[in-house]
Structure to design on (92 residues):
């Protein structure tokens, strides 16, 4: 799994927010294939539960902010349209 920062390392797996591939895609405003490619490339933290991927939301948001194209999709097609300003720790 990909680790992003100290705050994330301090949380146990049960304290983190885990989302399915489809939920992650909807939140980010991208296709499920895009999220699966990020999993395959180990660009996001994930676990496998009941043969299904679960993605940790902090790593998902960090991953989206590393690409301007993905960041735009997040802001205009995903949850970003409801968020006025992102925390600095999730930005590049």
């Amino acid at each position: 799994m990909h680790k992003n920062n100290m705050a994330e390392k301090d949380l146990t797996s049960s304290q983190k927010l885990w989302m399915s591939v489809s939920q992650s895609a909807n939140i980010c405003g991208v296709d499920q294939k895009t999220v699966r490619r990020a999993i395959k490339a180990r660009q996001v933290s994930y676990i496998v539960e009941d043969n299904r991927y679960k993605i940790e939301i902090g790593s998902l948001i960090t991953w989206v902010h590393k690409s301007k194209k993905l960041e735009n999709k997040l802001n205009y097609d995903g949850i970003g349209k409801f968020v006025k300003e992102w925390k600095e720790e999730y930005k590049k």
